[in-house]
Amino acid sequence: MLNTALNVSMIDHTKYRRSPFLWGLILLAASTAMFLVGNSIPVLVVARLIQGMSGGCIWVVGLALVIDTVPASEQAQSMGFVSIGMTAGSSLGPLLGGIIYDKAGYTAVFILAFSVIGFDVIMRLLVIEKAAAKQWIPEPGAPDTDCANLEDQKPEATGVKSGNNIRDVMLSSRDHTTVLRKESRVPAVILLLKSPRTLNSLFITVMLGSIFTAFDAVLPLRVKYVFNFNSTAAGLIFLAIIIPSLLAPLCGKISDKYGPRWLVVTAFFICLPLFILLRLPQKPETGHIALLCALLFCIGFVISAAMPGAMSEISISVVEFEKKSPGIFGDKGAFAQAYALFNIAWSLGSVVGPLLGGFLNKAIGWNSMVLLFGFLCLLTSFVTVWYTGGKITKDDLPWSYVKPSDRVKPEDITLGAIPDSGSGSGSGEKASTPNEGENVTSTQPNSATEPIEIDSIKAVDAKTT
To answer: pTM for this one?
Structure first.
């Protein structure tokens, strides 16, 4: 977490994501080698620290690379694919390591680890980043620079004919620039932490990390005590949590289309009865084992349903800041710094979950522990309903729900394109027609050089009202 907080600004200011990603993999290989040859506690502690540093770098750069590449309308779905890797890696790693260690010995485990790292290095070298591709492939609809000569534009092209209005526009622009310069001096992380939407997403991430990792500490002990499972069987039962992660991209697609609010809130709400039902498997019988696996499958599904929306909310918070204050995060943006906060939140949950789960399991027992976790999920559902997907509005309520893509926002209402009030959805547009007596020279300019009369703006404002 400390390494993530210190190095994210550097990652956002590098030209390409490949270099910090490769450095992270090199550090990971070095720490793995130290684990292989280390035979003292200090060496193993240093290896663990280096491993944590490399992991923080790889996580942050990887998520930022996804956001750089994927369109905004598909971010939650892409995060669903990412969450598959997160879930599978966290759970299958210990399981495969244990099986290989039992069958082939200590060194064979590290051969597999070095093979995975080497494959990842090759894949990083083959990736062509969007920033690099822009040098060779122009974006669709990009203006031809040979035809765009700003020096030939006439002063009248501004569309403001009054000297007083020109002075007002210049003063307003100067004030706006001053605000941007003042805000841009504040670190991006601090600005993001001021956003309720960002804080809400980080809180969801901490809770998801806590729930997911709490089972790592208590579930093996539980199945050994109740069902007399050995280490291999205890590891295999985690497949019940991993398999539902394959549905995460579908949940992400739903989140992209309808918004993440009710998907996330419903997922946490459903966790309450699921955790309460975990009290039922008490005997070493096939029916009780099947019931435990079914409940773990459902819990894994609700985690997978909430994860893509929570991850995409981080990048959307950055985009919201950029819309309100263009250039506030500089030319490179702040996606790496935003996902550094996500990494810190998930790491915090990964620390709190096993500690809290292990402590409660020992202090008050399994039944009371799962009951407490269930009520924590219920509390989370009530807390997160207000800012998941943005501050809640009337259109977000279930009985008057409107899809985000069908909502009309103030910035979507342009001159000469006022939405038809009779359409109901906001998707249809038609040009406004001036009333008698209104002095409207032009309600919709034909080009960027055609002036817009001040009276025209007033008339359209009156029509909109």
So the answer is: 0.70
